[in-house]
Every structure is written in C-alpha cells, then in structure tokens.
C-alpha cells in the first residue's frame, strides 16, 4: 500500500493538483461529518454517533470504513473530515499529506488498543513455551534476538537462551523466533517499537505468519503463531490478539534496563505502563494556528468525554483512555 501511495502522489504532484481549493465551511454541529478508516471500528463508531446525535440531532455522518490504509488518503484528498485508524499513520502517509498541505495532520488518540482481541489494535505480547523458565525480557533484548543492528543499544546479537539469562540445559540452546508478517499492521508495529524500524532481522531463525486472506478479515496470524510455539520449547514469539493458553505463557516486558517489568493486563495497557501497548488514532486536517471546524471538534470532544470513553468499555473490543490521556488528547482540539 505504501508504494502505491508514493507513486500516486508523484502523479498528483506532476499533474499540478497539490494546491487544492479550500473546503466548504461546515455549518457547525449540523454539518456532515465524513469519517474514513478501519472497518473494525464500525460498532464503536456507531456508539459514538448515537451519543453525539442525542445532543446534536441535526448532525449527519458519512462513514467510509474499508481499512486503516484508506483513512489518510481520504483526509488529504478532502473526502474525509476525520481519518480513524487502528494504528499510527505511516511515514509515507504523513509525507503524502505534507506534500499537499505543507504541514502535518493532527493526531489525536481516541482509544487504547485491545488486550487479546485480534484485529482490534491488540497489544503486542511476548510469549515462550510453557516449559521455558524465562519470565521477563527487555526491549533491547528483543531487538538483539529478533534483529541484527542493535538499535536499542545491545552489545551483541542474542541467539541462545543463555544470553537471556537461562542456565543449565537451556544455556546453549538456540532461540527459534516467531512473529507476524513484518509488512502487515501488527508486524510493522513490532518493527517500529521493538527494532526502531530496522529491517535487518534474524531471518535464519525467524518464521513469519500472515493472516489468512478472506472477507471478512480472519485476523488469525496470532493463533498460527501460538500454535507453532506450542510445539517448540525453544520458541520466542511476539503476537497480538490472542491470550496465552495452557501451552504458552506471556513474558513481562521492560522498556529499558532500569524500567519495571510489566505484564500485559487491562490496567497496564490503559495506564500505558506496558511498553507494547497500541492506540487508536483520529487524524484531522487542522491548519496551523487555526481552529478545527466546529462539527469535527464537537464530535471528537464527545468521543473523549466520559460518556464517549464509557462506550469503549461497553463495546468490549477496545480499551478506553485513562482520564489523564483523554485530557491530553483534548489539547489539539482547542
């Protein structure tokens, strides 16, 4: 998708379409709010719309929810007022927007990713086989085990369990690696957060797993990873969207050598103390030093309100923001 976006915007620039005409001024809360983005957020978006319409009955919505990859193109072609993504925008998407407007889109966190729900921006969880005595790992150790560039400062590659602190019969055993497809959403998140965007992975020992293609999406890569790990005591896996079963166990993760080790729980994800937590973002086109259009601002205020965040908890797929995070997210709306 990123390559297609790049080529598309080369054509847009060559054709002279970078200077788009200004959009029509929306008429406050009675204007149409156009939302493009991920289909997985449709049930939650409908809850938010219902709350908003209770206080703004003349407002109307147009939703085009076919995937996170559609959100930013909808925004920078002015077909959308809000891009709703189950992930952060990629560098290519941000660059495409900047080519047209000469400033970045405004990003607003609206929800916390899920714990153990595939396809719902799940936190990345690190697993080992149930027979493995390891209980914790740092991001630098993961970088050194899965990668080769040591962008997190590890002094050397980690290729055996002894290098992760295990002794006895485990010390010289090799580490077998399992991960989601590094070119898909969860895999891209893994490369970004754990490997600092390195593409030099330890391919000799790494097995990647992609979601089975289908409509609706299957979101089954995590289950494939855990099934493989269950038959490999030497496996170290990262996956999103599946709780550990009796054959596997999650590890506590530390962001740095001096940070606490934290297990993925509902509480640690909402508090953002678990370092591999994901978030859901709304992107808007806000001209620097200018206010958002009233209808967009008021809807996002609704999403970030106590009632809007309570709707997330009721939906059960995603997790709400903490009170502090919701307050911080409101700042760009002013």
Describe the structure.
The chain has 334 residues and is an alpha/beta fold. It has two domains: 2-112 and 280-333, 3-Layer(aba) Sandwich (D-Maltodextrin-Binding Protein, domain 2); 124-270, Periplasmic binding protein-like II (D-Maltodextrin-Binding Protein, domain 2, 3-Layer(aba) Sandwich). It contains eleven helices and twelve strands. The protein has helices spanning 2-14, 42-55, 71-76, 91-101, 139-146, 185-193, 221-229, 266-270, 294-304, 306-315, 323-330, and strands spanning 32-37, 60-65, 82-85, 106-112, 124-129, 136-138, 176-180, 206-209, 235-240, 248-250, 252-254, 279-284. The chain has a five-stranded mixed beta sheet with strand order 2-1-3-12-4. Strand 7, helix 6 (185-193) and strand 8 (206-209) form a beta-alpha-beta unit. Helix 1 (2-14) packs parallel to helix 4 (91-101) and helix 2 packs antiparallel against helix 10 (306-315). The protein is elongated, with a radius of gyration of 21 Å.
